[in-house]
Amino acid sequence: MPYTPELNELIKNVEKTRPARVERKRKGEEFPAMSLQERKDILKFHPDFKEEGRSEIKVGPNTGYRIANEMVSLIHAKSRLDPDAVDLNKVDFETDVLVVGGGGAGASAALLARENGAKVLIATKLRLGDANTVMAEGGIQAATKYKKDSPYYHYLDAMGGGHFKNDPDLVKTLVLEAPKVMAWLEKQGTMFSKFDDGLLKAMHGGGTSRKRMHYAGDITGAEIMRTLRDEVKNHPEDIDVLEFTTAVELLLDENGACTGAVLYNLETEEYFIVRAKATILATGGSGRLHIQDFMTTNHYGATGDGLILGYRAGVPLKFLHTVQYHPTGAVFPEQAEGLLITEKFRGAGAHVLNVDGEQFVFEREPRDVESSAIIRECLERGKGVPTPTGKMGVWLDSPMIDILQGEGTVRKEFPGKWILFKRYGIDITKEPMLIYPTLHYQNGGLEIKPNSETRVPGLYAAGEVSGGIHGENRLMGNSLLDVVVFGRIAGCAAADYIKTGAEAGKPTLDHVRAYHKALEEAGISVDNRVAPMILPDYSNPEVRKKQLTTAYHGTLR
Amino acid sequence: MSKTESKPKKAVSRVKKKDEGLVPIFVMGKRYDVPDTLTIQKALEYAGYQLVRGCGCRGGICGACGTVYRFPDSYRVEVGLACQTVVKPDMYIAQIPFFPGNKAVYDIENLDPTGATVAALYPEIFKCVGCGTCTRSCPMDIDVLNYVSKAIQGDIAAVAEGSFDCVMCGLCAARCPAEEVQYNFAILARRLYARHLAPKAVHLVQAVANVENGKYDQALEELKKLSTEDLAKIYKSLEHEPDMADEAWTPKEKIQIYED
Predict the structure, then answer these.
(1) Which has the least CB within 10 A, A116, A353, A460, A556?
(2) What is the pLDDT of residues A125-163, one digit of tens each?
(3) Is the dihedral of CA A164, A169, A170, A173 positive or negative?
(4) For B251, which of A148, A217, A244 is closest by C-beta distance?
(5) Secondary structure class of A515 (helix, strand, coil)
(6) Residue ranges of domains in chain A, CATH in brackets
(7) Chain B partners of A264 at a C-beta cutoff of 8 Å?
């Protein structure tokens, strides 16, 4: 729906201040960026710092660690399986490398494992390529520009964005692999936006000192994903794909090495046993847990499954106490709520404005700082813009971009968002967008080493499911990079591990039994809570109340 | 369900539900009353479905939720992505979350970026009858027929540009009387274009060479050893490339940047 008369009235405030703001931008006069101390102070408005939103983990390697209630609730849940009901001798699939997850990390891992001689099985809960990767709009960071940038600057930016808490070895790997990843993607035929001489176009993202965000229109992630998916499908002899089938538990042998997984077919509800010489968790993030009831930009399948599988197998969690809220999610119209409005709009010059049309924060602060400033403006200072559904938002002044960079820039650089808002009757080249922070990224996850291995032999993790690369806050463009860098590394490392001839022992679910016992001993009442979640349930609660079948009686459930 | 049962009583239903903001939709012929602000996807959930197929990014880019619908007083089949299309009264809805489409298997590295390659891998492109149903079926407003004709003419670059916004939902292929799989030869064309025809990023080759020669290993090792305070000091003093700077911009401080 187009803007209501009330909102149109408020847009006039934005239009009033726009000419002067554009003029300042042209002269290079920016709203002052915060000092490190100011950044620290404003973070108390960040949802991560809300104590009642967190609770303590009572079992497993991170006992005592406080993270979001929604995550703890899954960690404190039983397996979907009764370990005693599974016959592990009946093996349904055998493979060299099992990749759990079919997003950017999973596809990259599969391709590199194959290139290094392994047969691969990908199990993914939705379709191959249905992942947060397709939704990454803004771009992919890599230091590629001559005479201005290098991995040295990329390293500093990533560390600064993560509050210097990042695992330095992982960051070093990330920034050194970045140019190679760009070259690999270009070779796969990824259509990056380029100048006529082949120079990759690049923009700023929040917290970058050099313009190093490379992009493919405003559908960078989708372009990377569809290219990698196409390439995975070019190797049917080496890579099998099981869609709508996901791992619900890992299998460990008597020495604690990973020997495969139990898969679940979402459609027939069967469980399958997979024996794999190496397993890669590439299950992505967890936005669909709706931490503190925040709306999310994430994919339908982002339910943190790999965290649960890895944790039960003994892999510690790192940096999960921080969750990234993207500063600019749509809050209007209602149908678009939670939808990501790429940071590239701010990279291209759009200001962030309060109800009076005034700037209150530099538009390219790191994401946690930017989000906190928006939350403060709305909740503390009462300068938010009220939406018809009773929410609050602030303006993102997209019309500035055409004024600054020439008419047609928005349509050319943001075709996806332009057409989306046009469908709702909003012309973002003329009208600003109403935005509010939205749950975007799981900064932390399973502990890995620079070669993507976990503490469990034969088990690797890559992409959003892992933790440490981004410290306490990820910069824009470092996640698309992360999934391809560590996906590729995991694929290579898994193939190498197999070559060492590590003989997998007898698969067991003993770790699940032990985990169940630990839950019991910790006095946690699990009721009927099971994890992993696999998919959220958005079906109408009123309808659910009438779903009275107790389960599996008679011929129909 | 018999025809009489499923026939929407338009006037009646609208009046009856107007106050509640509910409108009737027909999911595979079965009536549900849903709020008129919802997308088809959210309306299905409101009706009580828990989606497994036909739901992905919920943001209009993954192509999992291709949907066709019809209104009783119109002969037209309309299309949309369920996560992007707002319900209208008396919509008859069917999702097409999957439609079989053949995909050629190839080695992109060793293909000629020509029309002959596309024609050899997807010979059915020449069966196009030019009816334009594909264009009318595209939820992304792509002029599909135009890129199909460019493919027939062998203009790889035009197919690549013309199909760039494709989300590969498959609605074009589902409705094509010539049984083409437009989205699959479109991605072939995009990959051919980006791999073989688009100008190469020469600076990438230089960057990779620099990194592979280990040029930054030492500097990064030193950064790794710094205390948080010292690292923060360097970080805060970093020179920032101005927003409006063009490609020719270089920093004043020329340490640790890519050089010859």
Answers:
(1) A556
(2) 999 999 999 998 889 999 999 999 999 999 999 999 999
(3) positive
(4) A148
(5) helix
(6) 5-30+325-439 (3.90.700.10), 78-322+443-499 (3.50.50.60)
(7) none
